[in-house]
Amino acid sequence: MKKLIALVMLIGMTLAAVTGCSSKDTKNGDVTEANNTNQAGTNSTTNKKLYFVSLNDQGPYWMPLIESAKKTAEERGYNLIVKSGVAGDPSRPQKLLEAIQEGIDQNVAGLAMAALDPEMFDKKAEEASAKGIKVVTFDTDIATSDYRLSYIGTDNYEAGMELGKKSAADMISKGITSGKVTCITYSGSAQNMVDRYKGLQEGFAEGMGEYADNFTWCEWIINDLSASEAKRQLESQIIANEDLRAVFTLGTESVITGAMEAIKSQNKQGVLLHYGFDYSQTFEPGIEDELITAIVDQNCAEIGRTIVEKMIDAAEGKEIDNTYPIAVNWVLADEIIEYGKMKMNQ
What we know:
This protein is α/β, with parallel strands linked by helices and 346 residues long. The chain has helices spanning 2-21, 59-75, 92-105, 118-130, 156-173, 191-208, 227-240, 253-265, 300-315, 336-344, and strands spanning 37-39, 42-43, 49-54, 79-84, 110-113, 134-138, 150-153, 179-185, 215-217, 221-222, 244-249, 273-277, 294-297, 323-325, 329-332.
């Protein structure tokens, strides 16, 4: 009888041990590889792997955004794998597409992508969605919104509009109601730059109101990531147009540096106004010399948090909205240093 009782106890202990080992703890972003799908094309919530494909991982826009995304994933118990391109790398489009394919092949729970080229990235988004992967986009949307669940972040057209309207109001307050304006960007084909520029022009016209027809836009300057080229072209426009009143820079260090060097070399400090898009420490040395007037800046930490929150919500079966627009901040020159400290410590 004692042997029988001992045998029953042994069987019970064995079953308890087996049951206890069948559930794996997924805290701190550990990946649960088992049971990735419940049905064909439908990810289970036991799949804790997410792919995050960004255009870059450096600078005051991308770094806080990615750190915020990582922190949010960790708090939710997911493993966020970040794949980033490098600005100026001619192979960047192909490398980003390969990174997206990695996520598809691993049947991740969620995939967040910044579409360097909306048309080019469409097919990969469609392929991922067909497998049940929860696809969201940020920074730049894909061409076909049906292939993703949500676009999260800055609406580049609306952000350009905000820059245009705010700068117009600032210029009017300074008594500037006529003249020429220009713009510098690193690319004339990147969709985010195209959208920003269109919004900028329309927002500026709206903000100027009755004075809108008094302004002429010079041909926009494309510097191809060369500070010296931005400087050379802006200097040429300054010399050719005595009534040039403002220059707008739409991001990247080379554009900012070239613009400020041109303003200084032509002794136009405080005369030629400079409005920027996105915070950069590069602006800070130019504040005292009046080489920068004001900026709009993307709320990158909020963007990173929202991307991951909504991607995980979708992976866990919750409905999410088609878009989550996050507004930009308007920052005057004398506020930039303190704003930058706050931003980089988020």
